DNA sequence: TCCATGACGCTATAGTATTACAATAGTGGT
DNA sequence: ACCACTATTGTAATACTATAGCGTCATGGA
């Protein structure tokens, strides 16, 4: 049993919050966004997003696969990877390269270039949008004539809760 | 056979340069640095660094392994990974997370937090040290109380030579 | 109806990385 | 020179991450 509290899951800014809202908000947004853009928010894709949303941590594709299996879904690798590709492609999730893992986007409403803060101890991941990235890196890029298409910015360390 | 020109290999700043100097400089530095710090710059480690230095591109561990095999070295995965771990650990090389690949450090003399510019078309990789990283990210980190230990900053796009 | 597209089921395989343990080589103190 | 200690290497096995390929089905437009 062990009914799980709906509150207190740490991040957004490493602060406790009502996480149920997080989930509902993200799922609702994804649904509407897909509708508006003629994309198919299928059962598998929704379930994968929900799985990602259960925690503010990055999950490996095979963790997701395990969860899908428990939920009675098909569970060959392509199932997870295809759904993840879709979610990442359309901005509902991100890949954390450092961890070879995936995380739900924390503010999918905005077009953004995310920066991730990863806690080495509790594995929580916080997504931020410091306009620094486009600003600071943009300047360097302009100097050498580099055309930026995508950035990976991942900071590893210790979060405030673990210090 | 096939004497290869010592010049013109693109990067440092995506500019043509005498690449032979690149290699010699890096190897010499690594040797001296290890000597000074009581580290063993063994044959395998040197060879792996040299292999990485042949191009300003990131190489996969198994590419390196193939090269080692041709050179008559042992070629099981741990051979490459151990050498790479050593080189990365001591700042002679870096891992490009986005590519699951490794590249020789371009300025191992300085203590640094590198940023990589990766060209999608020619695969060349340029390492820069914009103090932006520590500056911009540092500010965000301070705001939320995050202790930065390591950063991954990788920019993907099109380099000036490919535009 | 015919066709093109996109999603999914399923199998196999490719690519990346680590564990584990034995053997060997380098280091420093006696 | 000898020993004890540590670091490095040899080797096999395995774990983890990701993609290719192809057949099926549903949808939607020509
Ligand atoms: Zn939440
Ligand atoms: Zn996001
Ligand atoms: Zn060079
Ligand atoms: Zn470097």
Describe the model.
Two copies of one chain form a homodimer. Chain A has 163 residues and is an alpha+beta fold. Chain A has one domain (12-157): Winged helix-like DNA-binding domain superfamily/Winged helix DNA-binding domain (Arc Repressor Mutant, subunit A, Orthogonal Bundle). Chain A has helices at residues 19-37, 43-53, 61-70, 77-89, 132-144; strands at 93-96, 101-104, 115-119, 125-128, 147-158. In chain A, the strands form two sheets. Chain A has a three-stranded mixed sheet, covered by helices on one side. In chain A, strands 1-2 form a two-stranded antiparallel sheet. In chain A, a hairpin with a 5-residue loop joins β3 (115-119) and β4 (125-128). The longest helix of chain A has 19 residues, at 19-37. The model of chain A is unreliable at 1-7 (pLDDT under 50). Chain A binds chain B through residues 13-14, 97-98, 115, 117, 119-120, 126, 128, 130, 132-133, 135-137, 139-141, 144-160, 163, and chain B through 13-14, 97-98, 115, 117, 119-120, 126, 128, 130, 132-133, 135-137, 139-141, 144-160, 163. Bound molecules: zinc ion (4 copies). The site of one zinc ion has 5 residues of chain B, from α1. One zinc ion (ZN) binds next to loops of chain A. Chain A binds a DNA duplex (30 and 30 nucleotides) through residues 40, 42, 44, 60-62, 74, 76-79, 81-82, 86, 100.
């Amino acid at each position: 049993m062990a009914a799980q509290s709906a509150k207190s899951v740490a991040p957004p800014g490493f602060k406790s919050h009502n996480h149920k809202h997080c989930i509902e908000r993200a799922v609702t947004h994804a649904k509407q966004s897909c509708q508006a853009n003629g994309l198919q928010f299928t059962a598998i894709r929704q379930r994968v997003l929900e799985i990602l949303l259960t925690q503010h941590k990055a999950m490996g594709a095979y963790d997701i696969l395990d969860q899908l299996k428990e939920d009675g879904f098909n569970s060959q690798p392509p199932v997870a990877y295809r759904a993840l590709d879709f979610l990442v492609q359309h901005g509902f999730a991100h890949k954390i390269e450092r961890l070879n893992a995936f995380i739900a986007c924390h503010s999918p409403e905005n077009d953004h270039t995310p920066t991730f803060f990863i806690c080495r101890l509790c594995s929580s991941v916080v997504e931020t949008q410091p306009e620094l990235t486009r600003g600071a890196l943009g300047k360097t890029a302009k100097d050498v004539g580099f055309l930026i298409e995508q950035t990976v910015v991942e900071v590893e360390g210790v979060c405030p809760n673990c210090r």
